[in-house]
Amino acid sequence: MAKAKPFSPVKLIFGLIASQDLVFKRTQELLIQLYGPLDTESHFFSFDYTDYYKKQMDGALKRKFISCLSLYPPDKLSEIKLKTNLLEEEIALEINAKKRVVNIDPGILSASALIMATVKDFAHRIPMQKGIYGHLEFLFGKKAVKILPWTYPDYRSLEYHD
């Protein structure tokens, strides 16, 4: 009988969507307090792939990715997503916003895949814990990123891959 082995630690990343620089800054400060220093920070990408967040957030939306210096056990992703959902509410309250001002999507990056956490169920999403699902975005090959049929439209952008 094969025995279960502990998971290897993985890179913790966050995809952030907002319209205000102040909101990005505050979000990063809180994430650093919770998960430690960052080692990578992308530039801003225009986020106009969907109208989904425009209904919830005002302004021209931008996307940014950040990653933590420390590695994390992959089985903590559900717990982290629940915490980032609370942070979204906390940040809105801090700036007296009447609606959502930031979307925080945590994910785990390994040598073989990128998995993002979501609360939305769908056929290809894997239930993890406490109402959180794993959404497999990419598979990594030796020479290329493999895009999947359900990979989010913005994640298909070669600009993101770089």
3D structure, described in words:
It is built from three helices and nine strands. It is an alpha+beta fold and 162 residues long. The chain has a single domain (10-161), classed as 2-Layer Sandwich (Alpha-Beta Plaits), CATH 3.30.70. Strands 1, 2, 3, 4, 5, 6, 7, 8 and 9 form a nine-stranded antiparallel β-sheet that branches. Helix 1 (21-35) crosses helix 2. The radius of gyration is 16 Å and the shape is globular. The model has no long low-confidence stretch (mean pLDDT 90).
Strand coverage percent? 25-35%
Total discrete domains: 1
Q: In angstroms, what is the radius of gyration?
A: 16 Å
Give the proportion of residues in helices.
10-25%
Shape: globular
Uncertain spans, ≥5 residues at pLDDT below 50? none
Kindly report the average pLDDT value: 90
CATH architecture annotation name:
2-Layer Sandwich
Structural class: alpha+beta
Number of helices: 3
Using DSSP, what is the number of strands? Answer: 9
- Major beta sheet summary: 9 strands, antiparallel
End-to-end separation: 42 Å
The SSE order reads EHEEEHEEEEEH
- CATH C-level name: Alpha Beta
CATH fold naming: Alpha-Beta Plaits
Structural topology:
Blueprint: E1 10-18, H1 21-35, E2 38-41, E3 45-46, E4 62-72, H2 77-94, E5 102-109, E6 113-118, E7 126-127, E8 133-140, E9 145-147, H3 158-161
Helix pairs in contact: 1-2
